[in-house]
């Protein structure tokens, strides 16, 4: 029986999910933490080797499977199923989970971190819970897996709980997760009231009135949009991704955010007809998130916080693509619908690759330089040549430039916004310049990140003593960089995975539509850029060979110029930050300088998001005052509680009569 199950691809996928969830158990049971961590990495790699071929086989072969778990629970039997949409979103999980587990051997070793055992355990549990969310077809099981996912993310986030900033980020994450979970509870309770079952409605079978459909849509957008980081539901995301260990940040940004996208697409698939305004809401929210996210990112000097805000930008692009799909479907423009859905799903795959790549590279930089602050880095390209090269690859990809994969998926959205505006929807043309603005600001942001961190001279002694990452850290980075290049040069390989998911969501589109541009043009564009870059590099090498002279730097009157007079991340982004003053507030602290021989003075620059620090946090402070008043009622004395009950009963009697 076991070997029969092993020959069944769907059963292999379920076994891989279970193996991922159990991967961290040896570390909890064994006294040797290093051995437990290595066994967890072996289990993670094994689960991936079992799952990925099975997922590709089922997805490309059109296979589907469902399993009924009849547990006689109050909410009925639990169904788990593998359809094209689920198979597509399982691929990111089993790609990034083993990569992060291998990366952690060098980045978060058991010998250096007392929290390694819990991190390893919850890392596997998080991957298992995300996979269960994707395959669940029962609302109650879905919510349980969702809560396990949220709690696992919390325990991973607060791995360094001795730091106050980490504890604060964990609290914000936990509150946001439970508010989103409350919206999902209302969503699935409403579906139960409509259908009489916790089972998911079949695709296109949920025919309800316009008001009820709108309520379900807003609940889904609140619950899943908060997990996806769509503004203004993103408030937990920057601090969580910045303060978590880098391999945790990679799976949170690269995979968990996509679970929110999956939830939106799954709920949308329930309805036979989707109102046109749903698409408008997603397009506006997506483009606003993209613009505001990258503008705030451009002002950051924390390397991981910059990457976190750029995740908001990319999820905004994905949301805009889904909205484009709904607009095209509602107006009968199949070409627009196809480009929107194909671009969104393609960008899901691309973001899964280049964002963990950048978080892994950021972890290597932090591991070497001992800081997240760009202003304390510099000159790392000489000391971390491999990390510098792979970071450059990730930066080009996330900016949507050839020859990497970000260019290919964003090009589909450009074609949809600009090309289809001539087909009766001129307002869509506004999306093209917005995407161009987002791309331009992204280039500014990542030129700052790369230039300040890797070029110039080291600004601190720690940066001067930095060393390259270990092989277990570089291997997953190199793999993701190769995948990013493959997706840019041969996008048809990734689009082959996107096509079945489109067929599952919109069968008519998959049958009647094709890409308006041949994939070979992406190959030619990327190949041309590679040849041009190689030729320019060889030309410059030949020009400078044997002619390089060294001399002291002209110090503008300073006899001993210091590396600290170089441009910093703060000064590089100061002008653009001033243009984005409505979104970013800069908190500057300067020590006073006085006397003929003044003492050392310190200058600090800290960018803060206006929405969070001027709106949300003041509201939470008021709520905290109210909660503090309520806490005074809790004395722990039984006679006081009896008095409360007596007063409540008397008030109820008076109200009834």
Automatic annotation (TrEMBL):
PROSITE patterns cross-referenced by the UniProt entry: PROKAR_LIPOPROTEIN (PS51257)
InterPro entries per record: ComplexI-like_HydComp, ND/Mrp_TM
Compartment(s) where it occurs, according to its Swiss-Prot or TrEMBL record: Cell membrane; Membrane
Highest taxon, organism lineage: Bacteria
Claim: Transmembrane is one of the keywords in the record: yes
Transmembrane spans: 12-30, 42-60, 80-106, 118-135, 141-159, 171-194, 200-224, 244-265, 277-299, 306-327, 339-365, 386-407, 427-456, 477-498, 518-540, 611-632, 638-656
Keywords noted in UniProt: Cell membrane, Membrane, Oxidoreductase, Transmembrane, Transmembrane helix
Domain NADH:quinone oxidoreductase/Mrp antiporter transmembrane: 140-413
Topology of the protein relative to the lipid bilayer: Multi-pass membrane protein
Entries under Pfam families matching the protein: Proton_antipo_M (PF00361)
Protein name from the UniProt record: Hydrogenase
Record organism: Geomonas diazotrophica
């Amino acid at each position: 029986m076991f070997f029969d199950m092993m020959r069944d691809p769907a059963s292999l996928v379920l076994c891989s999910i279970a193996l991922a969830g159990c991967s961290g158990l040896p570390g909890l049971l064994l006294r040797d933490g290093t051995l437990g961590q290595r066994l967890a990495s072996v289990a993670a790699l094994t689960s991936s080797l079992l799952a990925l071929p099975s997922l590709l086989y089922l997805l490309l072969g059109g296979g589907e499977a469902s399993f009924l778990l009849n547990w006689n629970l109050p909410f009925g039997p639990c169904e788990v199923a593998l359809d094209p949409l689920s198979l597509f979103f399982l691929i990111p999980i089993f790609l990034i989970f083993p990569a992060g587990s291998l990366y952690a051997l060098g980045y978060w070793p058991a010998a250096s971190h007392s929290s390694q055992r819990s991190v390893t355990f919850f890392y596997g549990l998080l991957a298992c819970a995300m996979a269960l969310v994707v395959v669940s077809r029962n609302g109650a099981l879905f919510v349980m897996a969702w809560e396990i996912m949220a709690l696992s993310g919390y325990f991973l986030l607060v791995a360094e709980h001795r730091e106050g900033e980490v504890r604060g980020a964990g609290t914000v994450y936990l509150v946001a997760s439970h508010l989103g979970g409350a919206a999902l509870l209302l969503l699935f309770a409403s579906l139960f009231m409509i259908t009489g079952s916790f089972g998911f409605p079949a695709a296109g079978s949920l025919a309800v009135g316009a008001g009820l459909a709108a309520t379900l849509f807003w609940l889904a957008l609140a619950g899943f949009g908060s997990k996806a980081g769509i503004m203004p539901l993103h408030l937990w995301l920057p601090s969580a991704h910045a303060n978590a260990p880098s391999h945790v940040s990679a799976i949170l940004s690269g995979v968990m955010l996509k679970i929110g996208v999956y939830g939106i697409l799954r709920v949308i698939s329930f309805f036979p007809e989707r109102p046109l305004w749903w698409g408008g809401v997603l397009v506006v929210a997506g483009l606003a998130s993209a613009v505001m996210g990258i503008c705030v990112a451009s002002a950051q000097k924390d390397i991981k916080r910059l990457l976190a805000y750029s995740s908001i930008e990319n999820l905004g692009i994905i949301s805009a693509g889904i909205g484009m799909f709904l607009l095209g479907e509602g107006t009968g423009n199949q070409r627009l619908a196809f480009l929107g859905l194909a671009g969104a799903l393609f960008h899901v795959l691309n973001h899964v690759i280049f964002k963990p790549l950048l978080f892994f590279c950021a972890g290597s930089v932090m591991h070497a330089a001992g800081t997240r602050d760009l202003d304390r880095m510099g000159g790392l390209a000489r000391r971390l040549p491999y990390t510098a090269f792979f970071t450059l690859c990730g930066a080009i990809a996330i900016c949507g430039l050839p020859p990497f994969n970000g260019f290919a998926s964003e090009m589909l959205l450009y074609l949809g916004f600009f090309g289809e505006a001539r087909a009766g929807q001129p307002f869509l043309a506004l999306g093209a310049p917005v995407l161009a603005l987002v791309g331009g600001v992204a280039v500014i942001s990542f030129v700052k990140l790369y230039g300040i961190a890797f070029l110039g001279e080291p600004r601190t002694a720690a940066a001067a003593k930095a060393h390259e990452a270990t092989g277990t850290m570089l291997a997953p980075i190199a793999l993701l960089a190769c995948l990013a290049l493959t997706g840019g040069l041969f996008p048809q390989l990734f689009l082959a995975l996107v096509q079945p998911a489109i067929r599952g969501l919109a069968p008519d589109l998959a049958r009647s539509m094709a890409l308006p541009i041949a994939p070979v043009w992406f190959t030619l564009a990327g190949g041309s850029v590679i040849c041009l870059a190689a030729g320019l590099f060889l030309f410059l090498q030949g020009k400078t060979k044997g002619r390089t002279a060294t001399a002291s730097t002209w110090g503008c009157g300073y006899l001993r110029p210091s590396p600290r007079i170089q441009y910093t991340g703060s000064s590089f982004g100061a002008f653009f930050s001033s243009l984005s003053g409505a979104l970013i507030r800069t908190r500057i602290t300067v020590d006073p300088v006085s006397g003929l021989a003044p003492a050392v003075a310190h200058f600090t620059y800290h960018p803060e998001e206006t929405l969070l620090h001027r709106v949300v946090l003041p509201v939470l402070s008021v709520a905290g005052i109210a909660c503090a008043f309520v806490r005074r009622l809790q004395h722990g004395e039984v006679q006081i509680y009896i008095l409360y009950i007596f007063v409540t009963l008397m008030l109820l009697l008076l109200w009834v009569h």
